[in-house]
Amino acid sequence: MSASIAEPAGNLKNGQEREEQRRQNTHPKETRVNPQYRRHFLAMLGAGLCVSVPGLALAQEFPHKPLRMLVGFAPGGPTDILARIVATALSKALGQSVLVDNRPGAAGALAAQTLAKSEADGYTVMFAGDGQLTLLPQLSANAGYRTLRDFATIRTVAGQSNVLLVNKSTGMNDLQALVRQAKARPGKISFGSAGNGTPSHLVGALLENAAGIELLHVPYRGAGPAMADFIGGRLDLMFVGMPVAVQHAQNDKFALVAVTGAKRSSRLPAVPTFTELGMKGLGEETDVWWALAAPVATPAGIQGRLDAALRTAMEDPMVKQAFATQGVDRLDRDAASTARRIEGDQARWSELIKAGKVSNE
Fold it and tell me: Vertex 311, ends 199 and 52: CA angle to 5°?
């Protein structure tokens, strides 16, 4: 009769422990997350989705109501005329009305201050000139805005050369005669402008700086009153936009001395550029330009929508014809290029401010 031999109890226990250890090493114990932490993680994830999805939805549904386009000058002026041309075409491209809101005052600073305080939802924009974006914030610590801090410049769309007009009664029918007389009579030859910090003021200051002369700056509350006094013979010279220069090109009382820009204008081919006449610093960098701006915190998707619509608007045949009639060029600088131009212009104006050529007094 055979008998079975049983393993000792101690050996059996040790074997079971070894087997249990082997199973643990093969299948590591699952890490169990505290339910409280799990709920917290899911809540944070949900919150992140809630932040991103509405922002995306806003850009996708933009625009669902009319837009407001701020203009810092009175109706009828160059900036207002161009703004209304652009607003009409932009309205068509966006499928929503774009209403021009004139906020004249302080050479355009009031409109800029309004934009800086507006809600950054894309429904308030500004059609701004270069003076508003480059010089005005530098002239006063109380300007109420800083361009690259407070604004997103969507795109530059228009530019214009300046033409120097001189009353022939002064005997200064060319640039050489003007510089000669100005050096002989410092601070006596007057030039009018639409106001401190406006393009007609800035170009005059650049002329003083480039030629080493001192002129008498007479600021007005707008281009209209300044031009009226110039026509009336109460001012010696004045920088004007291309349409005004063309309008007075056949007037025997005025001499069209020179034009800013890289090349002669096709509308005034007989008028030389300052560069041709050997005057540095009055080339393309001094041309007037206009851009569309929005509050800096405007979502990137909405900025992109505005930019795309603006590019479409600028290809509208109506815009091309209207710009040609106004004597302005269609420009196409994107946001980054516009920011670089602002930085360059600000450096240029800073030199004039330090030299005492430009002030807000």
Answer: 110
The helix or strand, by DSSP H or E, that contains position 259, with its residue range, turns out to be: strand 254-259
**Rounded distance between C-alpha atoms, residue 74 and residue 96, angstroms:** 24
| Distance, CA of 22 to CA of 37 (rounded, Å) | 31
**H-type helices in the chain, by residue range?**
9-26, 35-61, 78-94, 109-117, 130, 136-139, 147-150, 175-184, 199-211, 223-231, 242-247, 300-314, 317-326, 335-354
Q: pLDDT tens-digit profile of 325-336?
A: 888 889 999 999
- Residue 198 near residue 151 (C-beta atoms within 8 A): no
Name 38's Cβ contacts closer than 8 Å, sequence gap at least 6.
none
Give the chain's domains with CATH numbers. Answer: 67-159+289-354 (3.40.190.150), 162-285 (3.40.190.10)
Span 209-216, mean pLDDT? 93
Q: Give the type of residue at 248.
A: H
CA distances 356 to 25, 203, 208, 214, 349, Å, are 82, 14, 11, 11, 11
Q: Bridge partners of 160?
A: 288
* R_g of the chain, CA atoms, integer Å: 33
Angle (nearest 5°) at CA 82 between 81 and 85: 90
Q: How large is the average pLDDT for residues 180-202?
A: 90
